[in-house]
């Protein structure tokens, strides 16, 4: 039995004696090839490692590799010009990797816990607080692409994309009950019917609405009809433009008189975007200039402007050199009306009147700034009478319900944004709501002609006369703050 076993195992033993050196030689060749690729020839330590690998001899008595086994993995290939064991190369590599982290740390050190924005290049060199809800950009925000340049009214991002960067604050909780004092009607009758008669004598305009009972009842009945039959919003708008927001007769150029009549001009869906002398407000947060690029194009449902006929005929054709003139016949809007569209939210209507009123007010403020100039030291040149001229009124409609708004600057010496404040709400399906609306419209038109219109006319004449006599460019296109023009 022993002899048979030795006879059977003898051929296998002879085969393994021949196979073991061949396998060891194969492993030695693979290891040598990988080592040659991985180690540079000019490194002493790597040369020693290579020498060690070359001097290693295969063991003939080693057992053969199992069937299906893989050769040992080769060492990872590195750049030949980088020594992984060199401390200087390692330090330099970490410096390159950590460069952005150091910049981020510096950024946060500069802005952390700051609640004010320092503007050393303002005339006074003072600090002013950043607008509410707007903080300096974080490191990640610098890497983000600019926001949507044309956010839609009513969208959730409209507040962050437009209202906050331009520092426009919509105040819905305010309430004005003393309209007589608000419109500065001292010296006029307190009774709206008597005041209407005074208005008609001073300003024989078609836009003024008789507050008689018959007129009020007709408007109330019409709105009750629209509500009961659930008419669409276009029906509400068409009726309001027919019976409430009226227009003055149009005059062609050759029929215009040489007189200086204060007249309103009604515009419907007039599209107006910043160009020429119609300027968009300044972005309050300068460090977001690269990110927010709103186009400020407006097209209100209805708006009232001051007629170009309010200016002397001698320089009526030169007014557009200094202020924006639309359709060669109107300047400086003072009242905006917006009607809600089907399935439109209340915030969308508010956003529309906020944008339209703010850009109109900014251009009016810009002209006044050209006339009175920048403040001298701590002394402001803005009297209460001048501040009373800086307003823009708006009325929003949702069905038969209306709301009156007015927009004022947040500051007067420099442009720092605007307040859009709610004054009062009413419903035209009730007689008291109709009466209040008609009275407010008459008071707004009276203010628009006697306060807004007269002051606009005086300011334009002042700028025209100054530049006619001196030949200088207008004051308000000279850079006056933060290196930018107003």
Describe what you observe in this structure.
The chain is built from 13 helices and 11 strands. The protein is of the alpha+beta class and 486 residues long. Strands 3-9-8-7-6-5-4 form a 7-stranded mixed β-sheet. The chain has a two-stranded antiparallel sheet with strand order 1-2. Strand 1 and strand 2 form a beta hairpin. The chain is globular, with a radius of gyration of 40 Å. The N terminus and C terminus are likely disordered.
Give short descriptive properties of this protein:
alpha+beta; seven-stranded mixed beta sheet; two-stranded antiparallel ribbon; 11 strands; 41% helix; globular; disordered N terminus; disordered C terminus
Write the layout of secondary structure elements.
Blueprint: H1 2-38, H2 44-55, H3 87-97, H4 99-111, E1 116-118, E2 127-129, H5 139-143, H6 158-163, E3 168-171, H7 179-182, H8 192-202, H9 213-228, H10 233-243, E4 264-268, E5 302-307, E6 330-339, H11 346-372, H12 384-389, E7 392-398, E8 401-409, E9 418-427, H13 431-470, E10 479-481, E11 484-485
Parallel strand pairs: 3-9, 6-7
Antiparallel strand pairs: 1-2, 4-5, 5-6, 7-8, 8-9, 10-11
Summarize, please.
The chain has 486 residues and is an alpha+beta fold. It has helices at 2-38, 44-55, 87-97, 99-111, 139-143, 158-163, 179-182, 192-202, 213-228, 233-243, 346-372, 384-389, 431-470; strands spanning 116-118, 127-129, 168-171, 264-268, 302-307, 330-339, 392-398, 401-409, 418-427, 479-481, 484-485. Strands 3-9-8-7-6-5-4 form a seven-stranded mixed sheet.
């Amino acid at each position: 039995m022993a002899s048979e076993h030795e006879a059977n195992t003898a051929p296998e033993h002879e085969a393994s004696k021949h196979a073991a050196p061949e396998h060891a030689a194969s492993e030695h060749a693979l290891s040598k090839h990988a080592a040659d690729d991985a180690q540079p020839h000019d490194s002493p330590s790597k040369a020693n490692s290579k020498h060690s690998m070359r001097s290693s001899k295969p063991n003939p008595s080693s057992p053969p590799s199992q069937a299906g086994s893989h050769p040992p993995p080769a060492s990872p290939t590195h750049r030949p010009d980088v020594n992984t064991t060199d401390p200087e190369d390692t330090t330099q590599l970490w410096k390159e990797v950590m460069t952005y982290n150091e910049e981020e740390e510096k950024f946060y050190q500069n802005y952390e816990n700051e609640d004010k924005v320092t503007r050393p290049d303002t005339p006074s060199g003072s600090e002013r607080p950043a607008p509410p809800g707007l903080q300096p950009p974080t490191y990640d925000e610098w890497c983000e692409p600019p926001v949507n340049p044309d956010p839609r009214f009513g969208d959730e991002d409209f507040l962050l994309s437009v209202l906050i960067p331009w520092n426009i604050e919509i105040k819905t909780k305010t309430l004005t009950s003393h309209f007589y004092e608000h419109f500065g009607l001292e010296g006029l009758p307190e009774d709206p019917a008597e005041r209407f008669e005074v208005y008609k004598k001073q300003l024989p305009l078609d836009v003024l609405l008789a507050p008689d009972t018959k007129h009020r009842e007709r408007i109330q009945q019409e709105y009750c009809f629209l509500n009961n039959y659930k008419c669409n919003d276009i029906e509400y708008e068409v009726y309001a433009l027919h019976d409430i927001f009226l227009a003055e007769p149009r005059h062609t150029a050759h029929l215009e008189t040489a007189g200086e009549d204060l007249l309103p001009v009604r515009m419907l869906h007039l599209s107006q975007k910043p160009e020429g002398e119609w300027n968009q407000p300044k972005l309050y947060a300068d460090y977001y200039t690269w990110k927010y690029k709103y186009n400020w194009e407006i097209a209100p449902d209805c708006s009232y402007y001051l007629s170009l006929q309010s200016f002397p005929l001698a320089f009526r054709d030169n007014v557009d050199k200094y202020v924006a003139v639309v359709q060669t016949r109107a300047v400086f809007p003072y009242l905006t009306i917006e009607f809600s569209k089907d399935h439109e939210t209340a915030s969308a209507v508010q956003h529309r009147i906020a944008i339209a009123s703010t850009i109109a007010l900014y251009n009016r403020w810009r002209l006044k700034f050209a006339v009175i100039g920048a403040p001298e030291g701590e002394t402001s040149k803005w009297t209460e009478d001048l501040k009373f001229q800086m307003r823009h009124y708006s009325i929003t409609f949702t069905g038969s319900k209306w709301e009156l708004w007015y927009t004022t600057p947040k500051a007067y010496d420099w442009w720092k944004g605007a307040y859009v404040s709610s004054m009062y709400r009413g419903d035209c399906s009730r007689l008291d709501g109709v009466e209040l609306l008609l009275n407010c419209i008459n008071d707004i038109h009276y203010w628009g002609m006697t306060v807004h219109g007269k002051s606009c006319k005086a300011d334009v004449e002042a700028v025209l006369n100054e530049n006619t006599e001196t030949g200088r460019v207008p004051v308000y296109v000279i850079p006056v703050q933060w290196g930018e023009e107003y």
